[in-house]
Design goal:
By secondary structure, this protein is of the alpha+beta class. It folds into 2 domains: about 1-30; about 45-204, Protein Transport Mog1p, Chain A (3-Layer(aba) Sandwich). About 30% of the residues lie in helices and about 20% in strands. The protein is built from 5 helices and 7 strands. It has a 7-stranded antiparallel sheet with strand order 1-2-3-7-6-5-4, sandwiched between helices. A hairpin with a 5-residue loop joins strand 5 (about 160) and strand 6 (about 170). Helix 3 runs antiparallel to helix 5. It is globular, with a radius of gyration of 21 Å. It starts with a helix and ends with a helix.
Length: about 200
């Protein structure tokens, strides 16, 4: 009798644990819809930022409309390496305060340590995609910044500009793409940024 009672207790414990596991899995995989204050990102992307700057994310290119869309889903490690002309680490998600979203950052072998994806650093490739109703607002906000000397660039998306020293910003439909290629010991390269933008734009 005691043996049967233990089995029943264990069975109840398993049954109770299953709904909890399902709820946790659902929370970890859901993605919010575009809001009035920020770009669309996935819950898993936010978790990656919160965990540590060393956490890496998938670097395969996917269609922008998928549930797993974020700044790292539109660019591959190989594309980032080709743009900067050297090997880079897998992409890491970090805060992108200028664009109001998340940045995907790739580090070259000469990147300073410790690395932090929340700020711009040398020997890195940064890619940010802001999706949704506020994309154009962030695009224009950065363009109007006192530190930006915007130079209109044609042939990319609906409109584009080089900020004069660090990055290329592009609007394409409901997407704001900003790329910055900063090799070690040299200023960011517009030609490298254009190469990377051409690789990314088909995914948007």
């Amino acid at each position: 009798m005691r043996h049967h009672a233990r089995l029943r207790v264990r069975s109840v414990g398993v049954v109770l644990a299953l709904p909890a596991a399902v709820v946790l899995a659902a929370c970890g995989s859901s993605s919010p819809t575009p809001s009035s204050t920020t770009s669309t990102t996935t819950a898993s992307a936010a978790t990656t930022v919160a965990s540590s700057s060393s956490t890496t994310v998938a670097t395969t290119t996917t269609t922008a409309g998928t549930a797993n869309f974020n700044s790292c889903s539109v660019v591959t490690q190989a594309e980032a390496a080709s743009a900067i002309g050297q090997s880079v680490t897998p992409g890491v998600l970090g805060n992108a305060t200028v664009e109001g979203g998340l940045a995907c950052v790739f580090y070259g072998p000469s990147a300073p340590t410790p690395t932090t994806p929340n700020v711009a650093q040398a020997d890195t490739v940064r890619v940010v995609v802001v999706q949704g109703l506020n994309a154009l607002m962030w695009y224009n906000n950065y363009r109007s910044s006192p530190d930006v000397h915007a130079q209109t660039i044609t042939g990319y998306g609906d409109q584009a500009y080089f900020d004069g020293y660090a990055s290329l910003s592009i609007m394409k439909g409901a997407y704001y793409l900003r790329v910055a290629v900063a090799p070690a010991g040299a200023p960011p390269s517009l030609s490298d940024e254009e190469q990377l933008a051409n690789a990314i734009l088909p995914s948007l």
